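Justification of computing resources. Each target in the renewal requires a structure prediction run like the one illustrated here; the chain below, 613 residues long, is used simply to show the kind of job we budget for.
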Amino acid sequence: MSNQEPTIASILRVLAHEYDGPVEERCVLDRVLERRPSAAKNPYATIRERLRWDGLTLGWVRLGRGKLVPLHVALQNLRFRCVPRARDVIAGMLPLAHLQPFAGLRHFDLTLLDIAGTTMSFIEHDPDETNATAFATPGFDLDGWYARVGFIAGDSIVVSVTTAEPLTMRIEREAAEDVQRLSTANQDAELIAAIIARVDRSQMALIPCDEVVLPIFAVASWRAAYPGSPWQYLVTHDARLQLVDDIFLTNQNHSSLRIFSSDEVFEPLPVPEGTRNAVDTALFAEIDVLQHDLRRTREQDADMGLWNGQIQRASAAYSALDYYTEELHGRGGSISSLERYDDLDDDDDEDDFGFSGSGLNGPSSSGEEFARLQAAHNELMSALPPGVAEQIEAARPEEAEVIIAQHLNMLLTKKLHLFPILDLSVNTEDSGIDPVAESLFDPETWQEDVSDADWDDPDDEMLDADDESAGIYAESSDLIGQFHDYLSEVGKSGTTARSRSRSVLVYAEFLASYYNRTLANGDYATLDECLFYYYPRRVLNTSPRQVREICISIKQFYNFMKERGVIGDDRFAHAIWRRRDQAARVIQIYDRIVGDSPNFELLFTRLFQPYTD
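Resulting structure tokens:
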């Protein structure tokens, strides 16, 4: 490549000045390739990666759903509000955190003026200077301005972006009693709802605020109007979100997490007794909305003749092993422990998927039962040779099973009283015992090295339940193998073919284990049970994005089955695919149900209605 050839970054910077509004990402990608042709198999991938990780520094804001907007457009004429703390006013400072993310999280270059055009000086305070003010974060020196305008604690600063390049902002004082709170109530509600929705969709534990807040302001109808409450104030006063280190957003429990040892500007509110009940109240409300949507959709699908409206509950039996497995690994263990494949082809019709684990919760049990299981778990771990317990805690679930298997005989000898006694001669259909759970107590099964799973032989993924279900699963595995070959034949990459095929495994295992059916006999009711009840509780390290991928894969699988004449109707799979966002919401809410909440059982029961009725 010659030194004169433009880089992807330089082209993107130039293109950012050629648009004055939102634009389709594909259009920008094509224009980059016009100026820098590529012979790569997927020439869009590299450009997308630059936009994903460096978009803001290159002048672009990613709005989502395949749309971009130039950063200068997103910032121009934007207005927002700051409410300095009393200590900020006393110190004569406005911490930079108040101006984020509009001042630039990754690259800071801002001029701050008052209405007379006076420039406010920026102070990057050194916290090691012991004689400095009690202010450890960088910010603007507003000491003189506070005095000139009569600013007191409780007043607001209304900030307006006068020019986006170079970035210049103007500040004005608004007295606390003059704030028009009623006129901004809808704006505040819309803003916090949009922030929550974006955080919930993200698979990152901590999301930089510019990736959440900037896209919302960029397209908001009120972006240049009279500003509502600071977004940071809304976040820190909402029990569904946390603001970490002033710049990271999360919906997870990271109360003790701090990335930097800094003086946080937006400190969390004190947590009074009973605050967890407020969180649970919000969850109850979300679950009620979700259940309303689920009932309405199921009724519509029944009216279309896709099923008879009867809920199936074969997986509802909750055995002692379920409790034990969940105590060891968080969410109940699945048979397959699905691997993650995040390098999918960009030419697929659906979104790219990057899978990651998420925080998971314990079993649905009373406090007394949970304590008993915790004690049993601790007793088992203490009986293991030195260092083994640490290996298990650090291992992946499938690796942990192999480690336990190596010491199982010793544990059975020393701690037999901790293992449930199962009559393996009982017909599992009549007994209600989970047939897959039953297989885990088979010593031969425990000796299997699940880490040797090979995609060329998907039967290795199936734990031996019994001869009949194993044979049925083998038939489904053959169909999945044909689907894998079909995807390869139509030009999908090996990674995509493996990922899509493997995603179907969870339904194949579910059908074989609970209904003695092959995938050729799948239907709406069992697929609904699998994805909306069994899968969220029993599959390890899942995520909302992954369940969407499973819905997509199952839709494509049954479309393939119909094309090959194996089945006559694949409408049920398309119907469940249309409900993929509902399935993702179930996962997202379940991951937020705190295991030690006094309302855990009620939340669990309501989330998984009608399967828990």
